[in-house]
Specification:
single chain, mainly beta, 7-stranded mixed sheet, 4-stranded antiparallel sheet, globular
Length: 116
């Protein structure tokens, strides 16, 4: 049974930082591209960042470039999202995503709240 468990969300002031973690189990971690998506209140889920398993490439939404960093620890089966200089518009439920050629999995989400 595949599980993606996110943690690290919470309340932070604008300009602050948070680090989200997503630990995977039940899958071969290094065979999956790992990504973060988010869903702001009343809006659709949107792409935030991804880490490609084949070559370690990373991709970011324009709205987070230069502020967010995605990284992967293969030994811990964990992907991280370091979020710096948080803005009000970063408030959302953040979801971890694992995708391969054959299947895709989602975590349950972790809430990030940004206050002014």
């Amino acid at each position: 049974q595949v599980q993606l468990v996110e943690s690290g969300g919470g309340l932070v002031q604008t300009g602050g930082s948070l680090r989200l973690s997503c630990t995977a189990s039940g899958l071969t971690f290094n065979q999956y591209t790992m990504a973060w998506f988010r869903q702001p209140p009343g809006k659709d889920r949107e792409f935030v960042a991804s880490h490609i398993h084949k070559d370690g490439s990373t991709y970011y939404a324009d709205s987070v470039k230069g502020r967010f960093t995605i990284s992967r620890d293969i030994a811990k089966n964990t992907v991280y999202l370091q979020m710096n200089n948080l803005k009000l518009e970063d408030a959302a439920v953040y979801y971890c995503n694992a995708i391969s050629t054959y299947d895709q999995y989602w975590g349950q989400g972790t809430q990030v709240t940004v206050s002014s």
